[in-house]
Design goal:
185 residues, alpha+beta, Immunoglobulin-like, 6-stranded mixed β-sheet, globular, signal, copper, metal-binding
Length: 185
């Protein structure tokens, strides 16, 4: 088996290949052990051709411009995310447990100098932060943005998971920078 890095994306690629080969059902993305959960269906990266609507998300210091996002099961949504704040912010789709574990990883990023309050040091995000783990922040369900930057995520939602969107930069989630994703059938 290839020697994949220990990031969520590497496990996602491997899981997607295996599941896609074995099943004809839509492939789901699963949280990695590094995010504290295994086999939790949080959805999957979507295709631009399948997007049914676009949701614009604005991040400021320390809040999102909406508290709830409503989506339908199996809907593919394009998120256009903009950081209008003065600090680095994250938009991350996951469960509450995934966010709690990811906050520890984000703290490590700050401790290792990969993340300042207003700057991302991409070169430092590739260094080993322990046990071969890097924090390149390249997961398909998340973007980390410096002030004034924008990004997009295309995501297909599952039928039945309690999801949140959150900023896991240290202190931001605790200050209320999170919201619920409501799944409708």
């Amino acid at each position: 088996m290839p020697n994949f890095k220990t990031s969520f994306v590497a496990r996602l690629v491997l899981s997607t290949a295996i599941i896609g080969t074995l099943m004809t059902a839509p492939v789901a993305s699963f949280a990695s052990p590094g995010h504290g959960m295994e086999n939790i269906n949080i959805g999957a990266p979507g295709k631009a051709a399948d997007v049914t609507r676009t949701i614009k998300i604005t991040m400021e210091d320390n809040f999102f411009d909406m508290e709830t996002i409503e989506v339908r099961a199996d809907e593919t949504v394009k998120f256009q995310i903009e950081n209008k704040g003065e600090f680095v912010h994250e938009f991350n789709l996951g469960t509450a447990a995934m966010h709690a574990n990811h906050q520890k990883e984000m703290m490590m990023m700050m401790e290792h100098g990969a993340l300042d309050a207003d700057k991302i040091h991409m070169d430092k995000m590739k260094m080993d932060m322990g046990n071969g783990m890097t924090m390149e922040h390249d997961d398909p369900n998340s973007v980390l943005l410096e002030p004034g930057k924008t990004a997009e995520i295309i995501w297909t939602f599952p039928a039945d998971t309690e999801l949140e969107f959150a900023c896991n930069v240290p202190g931001h989630y605790e200050s209320g920078m999170m919201g619920k994703v409501r799944l409708q059938s």
